[in-house]
Design brief:
The protein is built from ten helices and 42 strands. With 470 residues, it is α/β, with parallel strands linked by helices. The strands form seven sheets. A twelve-stranded mixed sheet has the order 12-15-18-21-24-27-30-33-36-39-41-42, with helices on one face. A nine-stranded parallel sheet has the order 14-17-20-23-26-29-32-35-38, with no helix packed on it. The structure holds uridine-diphosphate-N-acetylglucosamine (UD1) and calcium ion (CA).
Length: 470
Amino acid sequence: MRATGTTPDRSADGWTAIVLAAGRGTRMRSRTPKVLHAVAGRPMLHLVLDALAAAGFDRRVIVAADADDDVAEAGRSHATIAVQDAPLGTGHAVLAAREAVGSAERVLIVNGDLPLLTPGALATLADAHCAERAVLSFLTVEVDDPTGYGRIVRDGEGDRIAGIVEEADTDEQTRAIPEVNAGVYTAEAAWLWSALEALAPAPNGEIYLTDAVRTAVSSGCRVRAQRLADATEAQQVNTRAELAAADTAMRDRIRESLMANGVTLVGLETIYVDAGVEVGEDTTLLPGTHLMGDTVVGRECEIGPNAVLRDMRVGDRCTIGGSTLEGSTVADGVDIGAYCRVRPGSVIEADVHLGTYAEVKASRIGARTQIGHFSYTGDADVGEDVNIGAGAITANYDGTSKHRTEIGDGAFIGSDTMMIAPVRVGAGARTAAGAVVTHDVPDGAQVIGAPARIRDAEGDTTESRQREEQ
Ligand code: UD1
Ligand code: CA
């Protein structure tokens, strides 16, 4: 996940990252664990893990509520899973990671509900922590509405940190403090374990990680608070409204980055691009375009208006009108739609033209082939330079199983042809309009009728010649 050659592995410097993800997320009112809710199409947990990886935290631990729950499942391939068996607070959650952290010298701790954190902020916090030999560091941010956050209390003289006060424990004066705890910390591990073990539970019975700040201050340890310049990085997600706010902020950020990378966006706010999608230079995204999931679009394409692409690979110089494409590959110079549907497992080769209402499923469409009008091509292997007429259908399903259709290079499929699979239409073969092809058609042959019969050079079908010969 880490961009190779850009960031050194921080575990060499003694770092392990801990993601707190064992909370019950009750404020979401959801059966799905909070950190698995998606922001810009990607689970928050994965966005946090991506940021950690990009900042060089190669050793990662996720604190989950259960070794076999959905959070553990989603995180297992990216991190070691530690289990906090009861949700007794963020400090308690960090202690649950102790064994998995092992002998690491220092830890970076991040709340799992911070999808907008950037690798830059994490890297800066960790670098300054070491450079200034801090024992405990954390990110703070100034927000317009601090409701729900821990407030940063500084003492009167200078700007010295005094502690973090959680919302429930604020008085009128602390409640008004606009500087809040972002939920990201770095700490020397040996100090942290003993500090957390010594913490008394808060009135609600939870052990607050944030109380460790007061411990550090009172014992004269070096504590650093680092202010985030961009408040959106600290957008947490406790509720569905905050989920929507995080999604909006992330999508704004993605649009900015696309434009910075040379992509034209027309009707900015109507274009939705998921996190992780890549788009090449000089591509234009027209209003109502949605690029979702694991999608990569090449250079100099024009997508939309109203196109929906999910899990797609699209080459260069393609034009894709208002169509829905999913789980497939489209090569260079392809022209699709409007109103096409390309379903998963399809490979559309270079310079293909798919016109209005063409549906393609699990099929290869060879280079330069034209399917100009409404039609269904399913489970088919279509060669190069084929022309498929309006209304042509591969009848791939016999009520029990799916069967394949093969169409050779240069074949001409007349309008309204039914190809009853399994069947092969040979290279250079032609089917007449309305043909119902029930048997293989040899290369270069012409067929006509229902069921289709071979027509010879004089224009007779096999059947009429047999009749005359009798
Ligand atoms: C926390 C901070 C608060 C800060 C805010 C920033 C504490 C006590 N408070 O509050 O100062 O301003 O984040 O977003 O830390 N979790 C566990 N086990 C638990 C409880 C929580 O793993 O027992 C996890 C949650 O899954 C979540 C993260 O810790 O990912 C933070 O918990 P959350 O309940 O969201 O804390 P806040 O109340 O938002
Ligand atoms: Ca939170």
